[in-house]
Amino acid sequence: MAILETQNLIKAFGALAAVNGVNLRIEAGTVHSIIGPNGAGKTTLFNLLTGVFPPSSGRILFDGRDITGTPAHRIAHLGLARSFQRTNVFPAFSLFDNVWVAAFACNPSWKGLLWRRPDQYPEVAARARAALADVGLADKAEVPARQISHGEQRQLELAIALAAAPRLLLLDEPAAGLSPEETRRMIALVRSLKGRYTIVLIEHKMDIIMTVSDRISAMHFGSLIAEGSPAEIQRNPEVRRAYLGGVAA
Amino acid sequence: MSRSTLAILAAVVLLPLVMRHALGSEIWIFAIFGLGLNLLLGYTGLLSFGQATFFGSAAYVAGWLLKHLGINAFAALGIGVAVGAASAALVGYLCVQRSGLYFIMLTFALNQLFYFVAYQWTSVTGGEDGMPGVPRPAFLGIDFKDPLHYYVFVSALFLGSLWIMRRIVGSPLGKILQAIRENELRAEAVGYDVARFKLLAFVIAGAFSGLAGVLYAMLFGIVPLEAIGFVASGNVVFATLIGGSGSLYGPIIGSFLFIWLSESVSTLWARWPLLLGVAFVAVVLFFRGGVVEAWSRFWSWRSSRRKI
User: Fold this and answer.
1) What residues make up the domain containing A120?
2) Among residues A72, A161, A227, B88, which is most buried (max CB within 10 A)?
3) What is the pTM of this model?
4) How many CB pairs under 8 A join A and B?
């Protein structure tokens, strides 16, 4: 069944429809990629799904429940977490604190918010450590986030999203700006998450898309122009015209 | 017990030996005021230029009740804290809707609004003349009119405030506020209602300001109009930045320097704020972490020299 569904979703900025009538169904347990040239509206779509701003019209259903217009901070509590295209961490915090804050946000109880010490929430600490271990940063837990490499910051970006123990993970270009070696590591990482989470992935790097995706939707000028398996998308002439520009990957 | 705690306890004990009791009291009162501001400035990254709103409101309300209804000192403190928190909830609710420069200007503008209410409402506040005749009632047989007794009372409340603030900044709330300071967008995305947390920080800071305001009114026996003016708001920001907004103890050091200098140097040299101006420029240019940072840099410089 569909864990996430959008119905005729539209977001207009003035005369520009950045997202124009998108109908998307994400099946539970799959990795569903969204591709498209720069400016196709992919990140705007993520911002709509995570409540950064409300859509101009249309509906968003999560688990069959209408979440249209729910503010960003409540979306996280529903089990929908995202990573960002531009690295977006807490720079002065240690890596552990970066994920701890995210894990605490989604803890069912905030008892002791004003007087307990952070180490008196063992379940939060355990979730934080597990998230760091998942992305392979466990040994750097005490290092401040501003001191690690760009590649590691991209991994941390992902760990912050994982720490919320989400049911749906929205990843916005996790491999942006990574070297070939780091990209390989990121692919392995996303693959290791496959099956444990439902993942919606925005990515430009075709090697990632083609190796991890179950389904691919292609966007162009705010609209979905094609949907299918990786092989189908690779063959689709319209996608080639819009996105691959003739030089198919 | 940590070294900083010991240093503060020592200062509390030694201060009455080296300066007038009233001056010592003023330092700790101003430090309570600074502790509250620093939760906003240092921990949440919110520059409020309107803290005197809560300081002054609490001083007026509790002062009036002390004077006209003869309530006891502890009731006055409780009322002051409540008035500080309530006025901060009101002002904060409006201010946290905006951020950056607009936030700062809103705190300032609302401070002016409260100031002019106090200025105009002469039948209650005394307007420009202030509200004199605030008593320091005895409690449980302790005579607070004795400057040393009052000093002990103020110091105990200061230490209590410091302990509470340390618990708060060391709690999950403290972490969340710092996360908001570090990256507001991400804090919202991981599931924190940023506006609400800012408001909570505002209310806590307001409660501390209110406590300081009542103690101030009882110390001087008067609520001067300046207690609610923007200069008082500026002074606490100033003192906190000089002391170091990045640490829990910064505002305490800043308060000590600010009050002590304004008392001792001002009698020798009328233009003493020039000194503060120079100190402020030095902090902004070289020591963003204030005296606390300058101090730790000095020590690491010394120990590195010793090794050579």
Assistant:
1) 88-165
2) B88
3) 0.90
4) 85
ipTM surpassing 0.90, yes or no? no
Interchain contact A197–B (C-beta under 8 A): no
How far is the alpha carbon of A244 from chain B, nearest alpha carbon, in Å?
32
Nearest residue to B259 via CA among B272, B246, B278: B272
Q: Which of A103, A134, A165 is the last residue of a domain?
A: A165
In single-letter form, the type of residue at position A237 comes to P
List, for residues B17-72, the tens digit of each pLDDT value: 888 888 999 999 999 999 999 999 999 999 999 999 999 999 999 999 998 998 88
Distance between CA atoms of residues B154 and A12, nearest Å: 59
Based on the structure, what is the number of domains in chain B? 1
Mutate to test the interface with B, among A53, A100, A106, A113 (most CBs of B within 10 A): A113
Distance from the Cα of A233 to chain B's closest Cα (Å) equals: 32
CA distance B7 to B248: 14
Q: Is there a single domain that holds both residue A119 and residue A171?
A: no
Backbone φ and ψ for A115, nearest 5 degrees, come out as: -130, -20
Does the distance separating the beta carbons of B189 and A88 come in below 8 Å? yes
**CB A113 to CB B183 under 8 A?**
no
DSSP SS3 for B199: helix
What is the tens place of the pLDDT at every residue in B255-270? Answer: 998 898 888 887 787 7
Query: In this structure, are A26 and A131 located in the same domain?
Result: no
